[in-house]
Specification:
By secondary structure, the protein is an all-alpha fold. The chain contains eleven helices and two strands. About 75% of the residues lie in helices and about 0% in strands. Strand 1 and strand 2 form a beta hairpin. The two termini are about 45 Å apart.
Length: about 280
């Protein structure tokens, strides 16, 4: 049976729409269940007070603050280093065997399980550099974990900028560094921020790396130094669900809802910044 091009196009669109709904449906169910069971726990006390009675009462403020500290520290480490590495690979490195091996290694590193990064952070930052179980060790471990994502996305964003932009800038007497700064980076920024969004989401939601390097089981106070341990929402949720008996279900779901909201807020902020810079693009 032969179909006209119009019918074939409609069938293709229908299949793609169905595939999209199949992907979105589980996500929607998870969000619905978390909202339904966790909204009852959300209150000013829950968000701003210290945990009490072995985390069965009170709030989750230390876990919220610890999560923000870890994500911020990871970005401060990974974003500049990843961007500089991407600029070198895209703008300076030649197409030789060594650089091809480096690029392949970076791509493969992005697929390493997070627990391996946790053991790496334990061996290097906690034991070798003697930072101990601290915010500094946890932030550096998370930074190393999201580094391949930032490098790969930033390099692809830089390489997507037309070569004519570079040629025009160089022909006007600009140096290569000036060309990268003024003619390449501003146009690649939306793509760089996309990689940053992915990194933020992964850093905020990981448990294994912080389990070895920073997370405290029960710490009803706020950190005051980079060398302090800290609670974090992913590990706190794990502890509530597996280690603490007689915890109300709404507290567990409320903690999951707060973590989900923080990741969403970070992503929305980065998306807004990306959209602003994308709107300024002239091509």
């Amino acid at each position: 049976m032969m179909f006209t091009p119009r019918v074939t196009q409609k069938i293709a669109f229908g299949v793609l729409l169905a595939a999209s709904l199949v992907v979105l449906l589980p996500v929607g169910v998870v969000v619905f269940v978390i909202l339904k069971n966790g909204l009852g726990a959300i209150s000013w006390e829950f968000l701003t007070e210290m945990p009490r009675s072995g985390m069965r009462e009170g709030g989750i403020l230390p876990a919220i603050v610890g999560t923000f500290c870890l994500v911020t520290g990871a970005l401060l480490f990974a974003l500049p280093l990843g961007l500089f590495a991407a600029i070198y690979l895209s703008e300076y490195a030649g197409d030789n065997r060594l650089n091809r091996v480096i690029r392949l290694a970076i791509v493969n590193l992005a697929g390493v399980p997070s627990v391996v990064f946790g053991l790496f952070g334990l061996a290097l930052f906690v034991n070798f550099f003697r930072f101990g179980a601290s915010i500094l060790s946890g932030s550096l471990t998370l930074g190393v974990m999201i580094l391949p994502v930032i490098i790969t996305s930033s390099r692809e964003a830089l390489e997507s900028v037309p070569k004519s932009f570079r040629e025009v800038s160089l022909s006007l007497g600009a140096t290569r560094l000036q060309t990268i700064k003024h003619a390449v980076l501003p146009h690649a920024l939306p793509g760089i921020l996309t990689g940053t969004i992915l990194g933020v989401g992964r850093a905020a939601g990981e448990t294994a790396p912080i389990l070895f390097t920073v997370a405290a089981f029960y710490l009803p106070k706020l950190p005051t130094s980079l060398f302090d341990q800290a609670m974090a929402l992913p590990y706190h949720l794990y502890v509530l669900s597996t280690q603490v008996p007689n915890v109300e279900a709404k507290i567990r779901y409320g903690t999951a809802l707060v973590l989900l909201a923080i990741v969403l807020l970070m992503n929305l902020t980065a998306i807004a910044i990306r959209s602003y810079f994308r709107s300024r693009k002239k091509w």
